[in-house]
Amino acid sequence: MTSVAATTSSEPPGLHAAASRDVGSGSPRQRLQKLLAVPGYDPSRVNDLLLLRPDTDGQTAAEPKEESSNAHVVFFHGDIQNFEEEMALQPEGAQWLSWSLEQVALTLGRRFPDQHVWVVRASRMYLHKFSCYQNFVESNMFGAPEHSPYSPDIGVFHQLRALLSHGMERANLPNPLQPQGGADSIPPGFSLTLVGFSKGCVVLNQMVYELAGARADLQMSHFVSRVSDIYWLDGGHPGGSETWVTNKQVLKELASCGVSIHAHVTPYEVCDPMRAWVGREHAHFIKTLEEFGACPRKKLHFEDEPPSIENHFRVIQEF
User: pTM value?
Assistant: First the structure.
């Protein structure tokens, strides 16, 4: 199904940019494109995507169009967050419409103006609330993960790479990433920034568990090497542990891989006495990485304000 065919009358005008190479200027809404049921590594593992193209307004004729740039940001959202039209139908979601996937894409576009911004919608929203990233990491119905090491057949890097490749083809981007292969399958200038918020951080955590195996796999290592930055934004999930990675061996791999690590948290997650392990795990994550020589950039936002869901969401604007 093409993005144009997926348009519905309930969606805001301009949500679906025409799938052509010359789309890259105009208002942010006009640069936002919805791509439904994009297949991943396994054709049955599909995710909906939002793509916000770079703003090329203001460039001179002598400047290369940013549309030909191959810098990409991928965002994994948290619970409650969904497409605007679906959140508006749910009493619990309607009050948080300002943090819809469309609004987050536009926010990230301001944060990363020269990059393609991809928002990956979780493949399942249990009770219209709990985001489940089953296509990336084994999860229960509430989205709590069961992390596992790298497999050469399937896993988080396989799914992400194929999803991006098929999404780039669907959007008619030039020089698309190939779904698999070695160095020749990676387009020139391709770079990747990964951002997880709240429940979406389970995808980043699975990447950490798979990192050693992926770097040793010649068919995957070149793709993994293009990841420049990883941002954890107030990670949280309904499981009773592993909100932050604490395994020293896999953190040693993360510390040595050269990726810039960013950890932004709020009191809502790390100062909740009812979930005290979250704060302890975050501290252990930072301390262990520093012991292995990494220099994670870390910040506690809104530390002088009472913990709140609103501030939990606001970290998306403030990081």
Answer: 0.88
